[in-house]
Write a structure and sequence with these properties.
This protein has a single domain, classed as Nucleotidyltransferase, domain 5 (2-Layer Sandwich). By secondary structure, the chain is of the alpha/beta class. It contains four helices and five strands; from the N terminus they run E-E-E-H-E-H-H-E-H. The structure holds magnesium ion (2 copies). One magnesium ion binds next to strand 1. It binds a DNA/RNA duplex through helix 1 and helix 2.
Length: 138
Amino acid sequence: MKPEFGITSDAWTSGNPGIGGARVTDLKGNQLDFHNTPATELHSNNFFELLGISLAVRYALKNGIKVVYTDSQTAMAWVRNRMPGKNVKMDRDMLIARANLIADRCEKYGIEIKKWNTSEWGEIPSDYGRKSGGKKVA
RNA sequence: ACAU
DNA sequence: AAATGT
Ligand SMILES: [Mg+2]
Ligand SMILES: [Mg+2]
């Protein structure tokens, strides 16, 4: 069933690797937080998905929220393992530090990170809507 | 294959 | 079509 409680995060990039950012919304899509990184820094899509989770968990612990949804299987695994797989070279040290901070905060505050089931529920509310390029009129 |  | 990941 589509969730009734919790907040959501999602990422955007221009290119992959590329510039990008992430945002946090409630389940209605109201924006609660966001961060876009400097346009001179290129990172992977998954880097930004993890950034989104970090923003969401920070918001959650300050606001008594216990569930954070993401659509990123990869970023969820990074938090669970407290690190990315050994083949991930780009931003590795940053990713380890961030995954550990998220995992520590989740443990301390009892926050759960759950998978948003896009195939059943549609796009996550925090999605940027960049994938469906508008219907072609002309 | 699955998730982006 | 290409790239990032488990
Ligand atoms: Mg996403
Ligand atoms: Mg999206």
